[in-house]
Amino acid sequence: MAAHIIGVDVGYGNTKTAHSCFSSGVKMLPGSPPLSTRVIETTEGFYAIGNGKISVQRSKTEDEYMRVLTMAGISEELKKAGTTIADVHLGVGVPLTRMGAEKKEFLDYYNKYRRMIYKYEDVQYSVTLLSVDVFPQGYAGIVPYMKDFRKSALVVEIGSWTVEILPLNEFIPDQTRCMSLPLGTITCMNSINEALRQKFGQEADETILKEVMIQGTSDIPADYLTIIQDGLSSYVTNLMDRIRSLNFNPDLTQFIFMGGGATIIKHFLPESYKKNALIFDDVCINAKGYEELIRRKMGGRS
Question: What is the 3-state secondary structure (H, E, C) of the chain?
């Protein structure tokens, strides 16, 4: 039986694999639910996945939710491969700014249960983790594309809660200037809903906000759409101002945007910045990067 290489990128907002993306909300259920869609069953009970986010923690290893989300991600990939029994080389990630503090925690967390038997959507899976690798989130995602980068580049990964800043000098991360900014997309959505409350006394559902973030527009009433688009434009402007204040010059440094919030950049970045920017709006880019790095580590074997 050939082993499977699977990358799972568990974010506070969404969990991504090479071929899937779903909300990271996890709720333990009191018993067997009437519908099995996105439900994990373990010896501990039933977990419903989706519809929300996991709470921000000191570390995602503090509870079982990251493991449950990882099980769901592995299952999605195995379902695509047409199997329920598999040996897996697992790749996961943490931000480069926290690699030193959290890499061992993540390895210990996943290696604690290397043999997992559970049900996903009422189908039993049997998974053995042959290996676990922890990679620097963001950096892992862009490694395959570095040939297109300039010698001075800045990776800007926009997540739900934070924006990770990763400078590259001649393709090497400058770890002395890496940082995490509390400017993720949730702050943007909160600001937009505040503007909507002031104007209409009501908020927009997150699904609608995400539609405009991803597509740049929506068929909702024009007065609502204008406020949402203005809020997204302001978010991008404020983010660029914050980055410039850190002495990163977009005229001389290539800006590389990635993460779930990269779609906002795609639609609302001013034209003056686009001439020296690359935008990777594939939300699965980190998970794919983890898999590529495992393949390289294994000498190209799949």
Answer: CCCEEEECEECCCEEECCCCEEECCEEEECCCCCCCCCEEEECCEEEEECCCCCCCCCCHHHCCHHHHHHHHHHHHHHHHHCCCEEEEEEEEEEEHHHHHHHHHHHHHHHHCCCEEEEEECCEEEEEEEEEEEEEEECHHHHHHHHHHCCCEEEEEEECCCCEEEEEEECCEECCCCCEEECCCHHHHHHHHHHHHHHHHCCCCCHHHHHHHHHHCCCCCCHHHHHHHHHHHHHHHHHHHHHHHHCCCCCCCCEEEEECCCHHHHHHHCCHHHHCCEEECCCCCHHHHHHHHHHHHHCCCCC
